């Protein structure tokens, strides 16, 4: 069982947004330097650290190279001993030890000496961001290369360059992790993120960070209506592997899910729907963002680019949506060394956590209610009307009257929140008060929810 | 049977809008001074006068104090003998005999002498409307108070004030009235208004006035497809009482209904939908207003505040909508002495009557028609084309062609009016012409209309 | 069988838009001078010329005067020998031999001498277009008259005018033509146009011209999924006659249809929906125009005015829509001598042909596809990803990924094109590539399409 008392990284109080953001940022700082990739020790160590510090029951799996899943095959495992480039003057021009983005992901081993002209096809930089190291990989085509700031590249003198890339690209395994936290129902909420990006923060350490925190928070709750499944896998291939192993179960049990990515900056909130576009997760996601960030960016599924590509593919069709901060591909620092732990902030992370927590709370607390009297109840004689009509709670009376006016046993609390245009979390406590006053009775919703309907 | 010949208040010609407005305004002038309230002689006399002058078959009921309905109990009956406030100089500062709004509704009896400071918690005025007497009640909490123009209140000198409130608040009864005018069908159209407001005109004497006129007009018709039910009850409690007594019948028989309130000024038209929002009454109401006042104000059910709160409550769910002039709560004079018979005009009242009459005519005349020939009929050989294509009736030919083009036996005349974007009352006469020319046959709609579907 | 090799009017290469436009314009030039009307030799010769030069299997029918169909009767046949007006100075003022619009259609024969004042009720001109000869007919009311430019009329001197109208209005027949080109399915696509307009070009020679070209193009195809039916009939009455003869067959077999009219100018594209508004033809028509002319004009069925009035009438209900250029009634030259072969251009005609061809290709090629692998396929290992990711084909990769992402066996290719917001013809070739790579399999759509559903 997760116990945040024993962790230096989990918050002691899940309602303290400040502490939560700082702890989550601290966790990302721990993991940031590791050289995550599609396979290899970086991803493996990342998962082991998450298990050690946050989720003791996290299950870590190794899938051997060469294993086939759907249309894909797990490639050789890639690890880096050292990689650097020495210039004509004998000085190191770029060094993997300085920043793991300097080396193209999955670079094959090589040692050679090349002229600058011969070297150029193996160099990558961004003229429009001259200080940034770009992030480049070549998973499925043998290649090697270095990434460097354009201003460094532009200043390279003519002459001979010595290339040293000591990598191992050989049969091994691909590593991923999962954890299923049981609830009262076998129906599951899926939280999916990925752990294949080297030293970048928004895309991607924020996603697995928030996912781990959400699971730890859920584990701290006295009860959960639904079961929760966390999957931390390499992007694309890892999702393919996981789906191939669990497809029937996931299709039968997944009520809703969230793809966790790009959750760390403070610039905006963004929403990317599921392929079908109107699943429960979609509707809840839009509700949450419309209230916490009314000007949030709405993207189309046509602008997808993360693991929803697999989770929502035809024949898989999981009802997965994405609530994020600045979307991958849509911010300047994306896939460069500038996507770091200054771009990603404690407040940014805490905001994303809260958005997802709100969405989960809707899933956990939504119910159908029916008013117990015909016509409007007389709130005054129950002390509800005067108690509530003070200056500070004027809106609350209106909310309560609206809640009663729509509690017809057909609409759920979430649907009522949508109709009366207030956040779910604003009326859920009122439903409890009215329940306590015997003015509402609960018509439980959970048994009627059908998966993937 | 109502006979307008015998009344000085009903019009002699229902198609004369000018006479109709003047007669209706005269009726309101008769009723205006009475001290209507939740109970008491003011409401009782109002109903008796309406029976005497307009609706001889109006049935008036008395419900004893203490009787319970749904969540409510009929309170003690309240009547006023006299009520005034004498200032330090021995002069009456405010006097109920001058304006019945001066006394807070349901003020308990009291005689005492107070300093100005002690008196202030019992005084009510509106700084933003310094000439207006506000309308205040305290039905369910024992209290007394005076309402007065702010400019009078602000000028009150220090000193002792003598309070004289001779009211009776003791077991009696609550009074309401109803009338069911039978038609060919047992399905009913409900007209609901309320009679609990003292001397105010738009909110509320215009509503019961228009309701009584509509019933008298309906009674004057040679035939009625539907039955019509008028309920004139105190707001909220009266609706609760009435619903509790008739709920099964109303739910089974009410095809559509209109809440009648705020129907007297000339500023605008307003629409407030039923809770479900798309009942037949809603669709007809929007149709009527969109043609007689295209810039009418549309409100949401979230802005409700009249008896639709009870009529549309969960489990009651009557398909009731509200067509009105300036909406309660949305005009400056609302609930003050400025809401008087200068704000409410003959033209304003006549316009509201006509809007409701149009809505009722749609209910009465709507039918499904089917064109009797395949392809367009040759109107020319029937004298319909040349007859109609004069300069003044150019649009009529187009309307007739459109009516034929959509009379497929599925759409009703009302639905066709919506599709071809003309008022129902513009094409209903054309349907009669085409029926006479054997180009349309009627597919009667009435038997297919299911209540509350 | 149609063979374009043998025709001077059909193109040798259906993909050469320039040649196609020029050939079509040449065909219209051949037909332009004929005096088409509701009946008579002009319409008859037009159909015989189309059979001779373009569609050797066109079937031409004659319906005797006096035959009744639905609400209509075929009138006497009308032919003109000569018609002119001689002024006071003995000179011909207007002469049918100069322009067949000079004579009111269906003018009865007459020889008389009239003063200018007596003549005026028989003269028609347009003050707002002083150079134009208007187009006037009086099919069902005995009348005679001349049409002339307003500037000529205004200059007519007082004096005696000699009227010579040698026409024959006597029992004969009404002529129309049809051709059914069989396909693999008995389901039919209906192409309907009309041949009753004298010397005008946009409204109407462009419609039958494009219709004939479409049929010749369809006949040149190696296979056709659907059967194609061309009807060339006089407007209104001809459609009535045709429908009366074929109604059961058309209702059972017509999957979609297009009314062909006003297809020759270059100003804009216009769309007029079917009565129901959302038939397959409507959806396809809007798709085509939204991609080839995003600013196309959308009209309502309330603005109808061509044979869709009969084809979409209640009880007939064929799913017919209209894609056109400048709509009848909506351009200055409409129904005047200015609607000529300078207004109608080769490019205008070729554009309309292509729009209809695109619509037909969607009908012919649409299918349901299902992706054959779960999750995204690995395009790279099939040479599809690198082959496509060149600078010029960047969008193609995205289209291909989107096509795979939505090929769930439920959406058709057309529906996917709508969802991913690209033209059908942009992704149809990609579906073929993916089919060839065994990444898609076809779930044939044709057997599931139900007519008039």
Automatic annotation (TrEMBL), chains A, B, C:
Tree of life domain: Bacteria
The UniProt record lists the keyword Secreted: no
GO MF term list: aminopeptidase activity
Domain DUF4910: 25-365
CDD domains reported in the protein's UniProt record: M28_like
Keyword Protease in annotation: yes
Transmembrane segments: none
UniProt keywords, alphabetically: Aminopeptidase, Hydrolase, Protease
Residues covered by the UCP01524 winged helix-turn-helix domain: 369-441
Residue ranges of every copy of the DUF2172 domain listed in the record: 77-167
Name of the featured protein: Aminopeptidase
Native species: Aeromonas cavernicola
Lineage: Bacteria, Pseudomonadati, Pseudomonadota, Gammaproteobacteria, Aeromonadales
């Amino acid at each position: 069982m997760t116990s945040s008392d024993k962790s230096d990284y989990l918050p002691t109080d899940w309602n303290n947004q400040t502490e939560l953001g700082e702890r989550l940022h601290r966790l990302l700082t721990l993991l940031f330097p590791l050289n995550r990739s599609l396979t290899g020790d970086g991803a493996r160590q990342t998962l082991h650290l998450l298990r050690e510090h946050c989720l003791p029951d996290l299950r870590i799996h190794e899938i051997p190279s060469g294993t086939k899943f759907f249309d894909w095959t797990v490639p050789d495992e890639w690890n880096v001993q050292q990689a650097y480039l020495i210039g004509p003057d004998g000085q190191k021009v770029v060094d993997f030890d300085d920043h793991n983005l300097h080396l193209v992901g999955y670079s094959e081993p090589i040692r050679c000496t090349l002229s600058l002209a011969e070297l150029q096809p193996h160099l990558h930089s961004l003229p429009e961001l001259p200080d940034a190291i770009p992030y480049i990989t070549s998973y499925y085509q043998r290649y090697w290369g270095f990434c460097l700031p354009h201003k460094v590249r532009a200043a390279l003198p003519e002459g001979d360059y010595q290339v040293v890339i000591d990598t191992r690209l050989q049969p091994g395994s691909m590593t991923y992790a999962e954890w299923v936290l049981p609830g009262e129902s076998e129906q599951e909420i899926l939280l999916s993120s990925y752990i294949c990006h080297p030293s970048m923060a928004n895309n991607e350490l924020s996603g697995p960070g928030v996912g781990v925190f959400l699971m730890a928070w859920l584990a701290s709750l006295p009860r959960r209506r639904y079961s929760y499944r966390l999957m931390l896998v390499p992007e694309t291939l890892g999702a393919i592997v996981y789906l191939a192993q669990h497809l029937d179960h996931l299709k039968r049990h997944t009520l809703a899910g969230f793809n966790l990515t790009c959750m760390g900056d403070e610039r905006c909130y963004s929403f990317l729907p599921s392929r079908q576009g109107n699943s429960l997760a979609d509707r809840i996601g839009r509700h949450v963002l419309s209230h916490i960030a009314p000007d949030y960016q709405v993207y189309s599924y046509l602008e997808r680019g993360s693991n929803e590509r697999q989770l929502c593919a035809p024949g898989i069709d999981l009802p997965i949506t994405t609530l994020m901060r600045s979307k991958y591909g849509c911010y300047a620092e994306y896939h460069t060394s500038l996507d770091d732990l200054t771009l990603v902030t404690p407040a940014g992370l805490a905001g994303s956590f809260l958005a997802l927590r709100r969405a989960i709370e809707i899933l956990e607390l939504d119910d159908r209610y029916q008013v117990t009297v015909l016509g409007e109840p007389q709130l005054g004689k129950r002390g509800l009307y005067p108690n509530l009509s003070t200056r500070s709670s004027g809106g609350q009376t209106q909310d309560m009257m609206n809640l009663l006016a729509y509690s017809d046993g057909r609409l759920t609390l979430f649907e009522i929140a949508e109709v009366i245009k207030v956040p779910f979390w604003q009326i859920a406590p009122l439903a409890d008060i009215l329940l306590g006053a015997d003015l509402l009775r609960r018509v439980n919703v959970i048994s009627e929810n059908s998966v993937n309907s």
